[in-house]
Amino acid sequence: MNITFLGAAREVTGSCYLVETTDTRFLVDCGMVQGGREAPARNRKPFVFDPKSIDFVLLTHAHIDHSGLLPKLTRAGFQGPIYTTAATTDLLQVMLPDSAHIQEGDVERAKRNNKSAHDRSAAPTPLYTMQDARDCLRQVRPIAYDQELTPHPVVRCRFRDAGHILGSAIIEAWVSEHGQTTKLVFSGDLGQLGRPILRDPTPIEEADILLMESTYGDRTHKDLAATEDELIGIVERTLHEQGGNVIVPAFAVGRTQEILYHLHRLTREGRLRNLKVFVDSPMATEATRITMQHLELFDDAAKRLAVWHTIGKDLPYLHFVASAEESMALNQIRSGAIIISASGMCNAGRIKHHLRHNLPRRECGVLITGFQAQGTLGRRLVDGATRVRIFGEDIPVRAAIHTVGGLSAHADQPALLGWSANFRKPPARTFVVHGEASAALAFAERLRAERGWDVAVPEPGTRVQWVGRAGDGGHD
């Protein structure tokens, strides 16, 4: 059996792993590269494998850096099923068409900006179209958590709750070859223990081969109480003392709903007051609706609060912005607003307009709540840029930039180590993925030092051959 690391190797984007045996070829995730000037060119490169040869895809969750190239895969000839959880299936119905809309919009803007007819005819075609996204969605097959699936005669697998976003999964896969069964575990993106709303990641006790994420493999998040105090301080100071706005770049799926949860509960407890909250992302609005349809996936505390049923009562001024005209009108608000908008890394969408209008104002604040990949506008802000380019304009950064790591949907180093402690014996091989090189290497060293594991941090494109030993694998 061979495993090729096609994405999310020494970086946090473009997750894609190819598993090949004598009998089958399948992918785990097929994500888009996000961040950096080279991202569009990387996404346009042909797949290094024949898409027609792929039997099926296993998808860990809906975020575009894990799912975003699935329509391209279908367009290139892949005809097999895409297996994922029911909640992820629902989210993909929103996210993949939205991604296609962005691809088509980028091409139209390029054509408008090209001055000559020759330049317009040479403009690139979309990475994929809305029709490609619709075709792809017909191939998605929802699977319940913990239900055993046999996508191929030599493969059986199971999706376990990863606690990262709604529908996120750890994938266990048992692959048989030459009369021997090997158990592979793909952690996907793991949630932080004790986070509100979602349940904790499912413990896994056994694996022959483990692919484990390391987004925050080199740092520790603040605890929830300290994070809430920090959030309250930022909101109170910016809105009520300085008279500015709080701009929140947030992923439409997962982060927006969690921020609303915190604002709702803190208002209900009297710790925040007089909030005017705007959610300026049609996709976030849809994702929130889908979230309400999957309350069974919430943890007990979130179920008791029943935030989505009472949110109108306890956050009296919460408005989901729909039209572009309404979105533009938000930029006339000079003070007192919390504006939550996508994209989470500030690279596209309506958030760029709100940053353009609020970054130059010292009384305003920008609340960074998630990982910012290298090369993104969000990363430049976190790294202390004093000026940034937005829509071709040179924008001074005078607003305060607040990074609240405790709101991250990713496990920190202690949580990752805690999850790894559930294995009853070391995996025969562990590959640390989905982390920038510094984070992945730091986490790999902790696994070696504290667990005594055989750990590697693969380079992009690394192909690993596995020749199991007698007695390896095949056990639950």
UniProtKB/TrEMBL annotation:
Transmembrane feature ranges: none
Organism lineage: Bacteria, Pseudomonadati, Pseudomonadota, Gammaproteobacteria, Aeromonadales
Domain Beta-Casp stretches: 256-381
Organism: Aeromonas hydrophila
Entry protein name: MBL fold metallo-hydrolase
Keywords for this protein: Hydrolase
GO terms for MF: hydrolase activity; RNA endonuclease activity
Boundaries of every Metallo-beta-lactamase domain copy: 13-235
Pfam assignment, any one: Lactamase_B
